[in-house]
Write a structure and sequence with these properties.
Layout lengths: L3 E6 L6 H11 L8 E7 L4 H7 L5 E5 L16 H7 L3 E4 L2 H7 L3 H13 L3 E6 L3 H5 L3 H12 L5 H5 L2 E4 L13 H19 L1 H6 L1 E5 L7 H5 L6 E4 L7 H6 L2
Helix pairs in contact: 1-2, 5-7, 7-9
């Protein structure tokens, strides 16, 4: 049985003092040992978040990292820095990173390898634009992203990866994919993993849905066979996140 995983992506929100207040509010709301709960917070909030969640069921994730150990890469964060700070997960290849900061499938793959080198669990994002969905190439597009992101990993590493399917047209728009749309793509992702890494990895890998998830939409989405949780944006900054975790 795959353990459900719900991760909050805080994006560029909350100062350290604001983060402390929010974490204090959310801790009792997400206290559920049947679900892996992750707060992916801005880098400046990581020390505070790690300290405040030390004796809870919550793990802390980062929103990005670079694919080198160290060096002259001004403004970037190395995987070793995240590891030393107590981070357990890292979001890689989010559509906003691809859109605004020119990330590619190839750089995502480099980051995935580096994450495993440092014992960090990657949450790999994939998804299509509205135009790509209308063109009928959603499955092909998403599977291409997955194949490149996982290139060179062992089946064991792939089994321990988290994939977040986030249709770009649903991120921050208030529009949620139907449970059938989400299941169709998540099922295709699992089939794609099966084709490159075998049955064991495909059955073990956890696949999230993301894109305007709320406490109202979460129960029917998480009831789908191939959806193992969610990557949650705006709602992760509100008490509603507790409803999503407990869905």
């Amino acid at each position: 049985m795959r353990k459900r995983i719900v991760a909050g992506n805080w994006k560029m929100n909350k100062t350290p003092s604001e983060a402390a207040l929010l974490i204090g509010e959310l801790i009792p709301l997400v206290n559920n040992d049947n679900v892996e709960v992750v707060f992916c917070v801005p880098a400046i909030d990581i020390p505070c978040a790690v300290e405040l969640t030390k004796d809870t069921n919550i793990k802390i994730g980062a929103e990005n990292m670079y694919f080198e150990d160290k060096g002259a890469f001004t403004g970037e964060i190395a995987p070793g820095m995240l590891k030393d700070a107590g981070v357990k997960y890292v979001i890689l290849g989010h559509s906003e990173r691809r859109q605004y900061f020119a990330e590619t499938d190839e750089t995502v793959n480099l980051k995935v390898h580096k994450a495993f080198e440092y014992g960090l669990t990657p949450i790999i994002c994939c998804g299509e634009t509205l135009k790509q969905r209308e063109q009928g190439i959603t499955i092909e597009w998403v599977c291409m992203q997955i194949k490149i992101a996982l290139l060179g990993l062992t089946p064991e590493q792939i089994a321990n990866t988290v994939i977040a399917y986030e249709p770009i047209w649903a991120i921050g728009t208030g529009v949620v994919a139907t449970k059938e749309q989400a299941q169709e793509v998540c099922s295709a992702i699992r089939a794609c993993v099966r084709s490159i890494a075998g049955d064991e990895a495909a059955d073990a890998i956890r696949i999230q849905y993301g894109g305007s998830v709320t406490g109202d939409s979460a129960p029917e989405l998480f009831a789908m066979e191939d959806i193992d949780g969610g990557l949650v944006g705006g709602a992760s900054l509100k008490p509603d996140f507790g409803r999503i975790v407990n869905a």
